[in-house]
Design goal:
Elements lengths: L32 H25 L3 H10 L8 E2 H8 L3 H13 L3 E5 L7 E5 L1 H22 L4 H20 L2 H4 L4
Antiparallel strand pairs: 1-3, 2-3
């Protein structure tokens, strides 16, 4: 299957009156059909998001996500590296690099875990919290502009569909599908 651009219109097959299409039924041609178009659009959207966050806010999308995660209620004392990695679904190497940059900029610190001397917690600094709070107007405007062509119902539907896709991806195992010799 080619992971590339679909047809210009990217029209989805509409269900016939007797039934509806499932994800498995959406494959409409030998070059990948709707699944190929969908995953390519997700790839493009992720890249556009990365570029626009960097251009508009001066930080990476992963830095934005880390700052947002650490600013949540209940995380004032920090969270473990592994918990943060799992929450964000990023690699150990990627998160470590981002944390090093945020530490260098004075936005986060790694502090000893109070109950486990070998473990460390990642925590926002006062400077990091102030930086995050200073981004909030820009973030609100970023969301508003990016979503202005979506209705409230569209946004709710997209959120629901992305959650279903995430769950499907997390359960994915090609080894279970492969025939054994």
């Amino acid at each position: 299957m080619a992971f590339g651009m679909g047809d210009a219109g990217d029209r989805l097959p509409w269900p016939d009156p007797q039934g509806s299409h499932t994800g498995a039924q959406m494959i409409v041609n030998e070059s990948g059909g709707i699944p190929n178009r969908l995953f390519f659009r997700l790839f493009q959207t992720g890249n556009i998001l990365q570029r626009q966050v960097q251009n508009e806010m001066g930080i990476s999308a992963v830095q934005w996500a880390v700052l947002g995660a650490l600013s949540r209620d209940g995380f004032e004392q920090g969270t473990s590296f592994n918990q943060l990695k799992e929450y964000l679904h990023v690699s150990r190497q990627n998160l470590d690099g981002v944390l090093k940059r945020l530490e260098r900029d004075g936005h986060v610190v790694r502090v000893p875990h109070p109950r486990d001397g070998r473990a460390r917690l990642v925590r926002l600094t006062d400077s990091g919290r102030a930086f995050w709070l200073g981004l909030q107007d820009s973030i609100t405007d970023f969301y508003r502009q990016a979503l202005e062509d979506l209705s409230f119902d569209d946004g709710v539907s997209l959120l629901h569909l992305l959650k279903k896709l995430q769950q499907g991806l997390l359960q994915l195992s090609l080894d279970a599908e492969r025939p054994t010799d």
